[in-house]
Amino acid sequence: MLESLQWRASLSNPGDRDALLANPDAIALPIEQIAEGCVFVAERDGVVAGFAAVVPRPDGGAELDALFVEPHLWKQGIGRRLVDEIAEVARVREASFLHVIGNPHAEGFYLSCGFCVTGTIETRFGVGLAMRRPL
User: Fold this and answer.
1) Domains of the chain, each with CATH number or no CATH
2) Four-residue CA torsion sign, 51, 56, 62, 63
3) pLDDT tens, 18-69?
4) Cα–Cα distance measured from residue 105 to residue 128, given in angstroms and rounded to the nearest whole number
5) C-alpha angle with apex 39: 2 to 44, nearest 5 degrees?
6) Of 66, 77, 117, 132, which is most buried with the most CB atoms under 10 A?
């Protein structure tokens, strides 16, 4: 169910569509993340609206490893609430910062959530933004 949501959200971004269709293995939610309590789900009216995953980093931080919201619910604050929840979970787990590799089209969203750009990273699908939010 969550991977289906991930597909819908990812394919709704025209800049990502062709690369994802050519590389369907890119959409995966590791079962270990669910089993280890790293995945958090947002619901609206009893229906899954989005999800996010946070994993520890060896440098004392945490990684926002996934953030997906149903496309018809974009711009309603669900993504921001998921980021804030992930940040609180990371803080409780004693991380000093939250890191994300953001898609350049999402830069404004992440900046509005308190992240700052620390550089760029070459990803499988092009350049991503390395971003960090202090906790």
Assistant:
1) 30-134 (3.40.630.30)
2) negative
3) 877 888 788 888 899 999 999 999 999 999 999 999 999 999 999 999 999 9
4) 10
5) 60
6) 66
